[in-house]
Design a protein that fits this description.
The structure is a homodimer.
Chain A: H1 2-31, H2 36-66, E1 69-71
């Protein structure tokens, strides 16, 4: 159980990192004026974070599919 | 186990919905020219999706903390 809680804790941080990055980038675009180049760069970084998030969520879903769990309480 | 797989499947869809929305909005900003108002609107929608995603991930993490699991295989 401790091991699984550890995995859950780790996953929540692995998921939260690209999400926090995404949110920061959205605020960056919202709060300041940017040149077309800067805008492009920020949007590219957003896509990278979103793809990372997608990958992490896929991995979690896959491991849930392949591992069998039972609920103790 | 079936029940838990069902939860995992559901969660992956609940998480993927705002993520898909976010990715669509990023592409929208990237691929087209927008007025300042449109841009603002898209960015606000992005923030809503990002917050939704954050909330969903928090809920999943919380339920992992309060429910005890053991690994069967």
């Amino acid at each position: 159980n401790e091991k699984l809680n550890e995995i859950a804790w780790m996953q929540s941080h692995v998921v939260r990192a690209p999400l926090a990055s995404l949110m920061g980038l959205i605020h960056l675009l919202k709060d300041e004026e940017h040149s077309a180049e800067e805008k492009e760069e920020i949007l590219d970084k957003m896509l990278i974070s979103a793809n990372e998030l997608d990958l992490v969520i896929r991995e979690i879903t896959n491991s849930a599919d392949t591992t069998e769990y039972s609920i103790d309480s």
